[in-house]
Design a protein that fits this description.
Layout (H helix, E strand, L loop, with lengths): L12 H6 L21 E6 L3 H10 L3 E2 L11 H6 L15 H12 L9 E3 L2 E3 L14 H21 L2 E6 L3 E5 L5 E2 L15 E5 L2 H18 L4 E6 L13 H22 L3 E3 L2 H6 L17 H18 L5 H11 L12 H14 L19
Parallel strand pairs: 1-2, 1-5, 5-9, 9-10
Antiparallel strand pairs: 3-4, 6-7, 6-8
């Protein structure tokens, strides 16, 4: 007798993976806690986080939007000006240290710099460089908009029940003397690069882990009941400053982020990890879920990730619609637990259709990092 003999089929590659069609590989997540449809869920992070928020909203979950588009703004213009992309209008938060920086501003332990980038009479926010595609009309307007975003981020921290964060990058850019971090290298989306003031940092495991733990505890000071769900973006780097081939740099970066997310989720009882990165990138899926550029995740990939999310969540914590509650109670009796709902392929097909409608039928995620492609020779 040895301990391996008592393990289930999912513990072995042959029975858990190799003997299945890739679409039948299930049970990839064992959720720590329930996410009820009444729970207020915030989503932030890199580009892939945008899909999670849309899928939650499309499937009846209480996705939280704390910075609504102005009244009268059309849906097309709301998307153009980055409303409804994340819970607040922060733009992409690619690194954990950027998340910490936003949390420091929101908790009022640090003040956001008044730095501004100007080009052709328009003003750009260094910390949300693509939030207004044509820039702001004045420095004051830009600072006012940023202040609204910070307060909206604070509202998300203080009022939401679950905070979903997608870790995206290890490569980052800092102001050398002031210490603040930019989401993009100055001079790419906007601003001007100054080698004496702008410093590249490829963050390592220890730095990122410390930043994540510190950030989580800072958020819990504002909201002691806040729970966290971490994911890692499956989207490869557009470009790298590491000096390595971009493929090697991508694998190193994602490996570090995955290790950090898993370690912190294991350590903290109020934090969990969902394997979106693995579902897209693992070998059994054979690159099926990428577009032709081998970088962007296609609609089938997003739908498959979210079908796994809802299937695993509902298997462990079954969701019952209120209109079905009375009939369910009368049929099972008050003292009997609800049976787990089966994961039906028909339901998965419905999910894919809802996801496609939520995504608007095309690639519409906002990803400043993709603009680096313009600098390829």
């Amino acid at each position: 007798m040895n301990p391996y003999k008592g393990l289930g089929q999912n513990a072995f590659w042959a029975t858990g993976v190799a003997k299945h069609n890739m679409f039948d590989i299930g049970g990839l997540w064992d959720p720590k806690f329930a996410i009820d449809k009444a729970d207020r869920v915030a989503t932030f992070g890199s580009c892939f986080a945008q899909h999670i928020g849309k899928a939650l909203a499309a499937n009846g979950y209480n996705w939280c939007n704390t910075e609504m588009a102005p009244d009268g703004l059309s849906a097309a213009n709301a998307a153009k000006f980055n409303y409804g992309v994340f819970t607040a209008r922060t733009g992409n938060i690619y690194t954990v240290s950027l998340l910490r920086q936003w949390t420091e501003w929101a908790s009022r332990t640090k003040k956001a710099p008044e730095e501004v980038w100007e080009k052709d009479g328009r003003f750009y926010d260094p910390f949300r460089p693509n939030i207004e595609p044509d820039g702001f009309a004045s420095h004051r307007e830009m600072l006012t908009s940023r202040a609204v975003a910070i307060e909206s981020f604070r509202t998300a921290l203080t009022t939401c029940d679950v905070f979903v964060f997608t870790l995206g990058l290890t490569e980052s850019w800092f102001h050398a003397s002031e210490g603040h971090e930019y989401p993009m290298c100055p001079g790419t989306v906007a601003g001007e690069f100054d080698a004496s003031q702008h410093r590249f940092v490829n963050q390592d495991y220890g730095f990122i882990r410390e930043a994540l733990v510190e950030t989580v505890h800072m958020m819990r000071l504002l909201n002691p009941s806040l729970r966290f769900l971490f994911t890692v973006s499956p989207v490869p780097l557009t470009a790298t400053m590491s000096g390595r081939h971009v493929l090697v740099a991508t694998m190193e970066s994602k490996s570090i982020l995955r290790a950090v997310a898993g370690s912190v989720a294991r350590e903290l009882e109020f934090a969990d990890y969902f394997p979106s990165y693995e579902i897209i990138n693992a070998t059994p899926f054979r690159g099926t879920f990428f577009e032709a550029n081998q970088r962007n995740v296609n609609h089938a990939g997003v739908a498959h990730v979210m079908s796994q999310f809802f299937a695993c969540l509902n298997a462990k914590f079954p969701v019952v619609d209120e209109r079905d509650e009375s009939s369910a109670v009368s049929s099972r009796g008050e003292d009997k637990p609800l049976e787990r709902r089966p994961r039906l392929s028909r339901e998965e097909r419905k999910l894919a259709r809802r996801q496609r409608r939520a995504e608007g039928g095309g690639k519409n995620e906002v990803c400043e990092e993709e603009l680096l492609e313009a600098f390829a020779k």
